[in-house]
Design brief:
mainly alpha
């Protein structure tokens, strides 16, 4: 992935996290069923959009599920937890921090090469 890909992915995922963070409390504790259902749709859509973008880039998927010699089974356990609403917000926050560090390291590499 290029630096621009990482930056673009970060913006998209950060926006989806914001949408999720606003809708999740309403989904859980909304005043009535209609509000909870509408918020639930936003929550699910946010997770779906995020997972779609992450799966588009194998390097991003590996960054999320752990780099190194982790087994495919181990990666799928991490992924399955990530896409559940009760884990999504915390895991996405951690993932965005990892992406930010990746962007910073790529920017440093680019500056060294100039």
């Amino acid at each position: 992935m290029t630096l621009d890909n990482w930056k673009s992915l970060y913006k998209i995922l950060d926006k989806q996290l914001s949408v999720f963070s606003l809708a999740y409390p309403t989904m859980r504790n909304g005043k009535n069923q209609k509000l909870r259902e509408e918020a639930g749709k936003k929550v699910n859509n946010s997770i779906d959009v995020s997972s779609s973008w992450i799966r588009k880039y194998p390097e991003a998927f590996k960054l999320l599920t752990g780099e190194g010699d982790r087994s495919d089974y181990g990666r799928m356990i991490i992924w399955d937890e990530f896409i559940k609403p009760n884990y999504f917000e915390g895991d996405m926050t951690d993932f965005l921090e990892k992406i930010q560090k990746k962007i910073e390291s790529l920017e440093m590499e680019n500056n060294d090469n100039e």
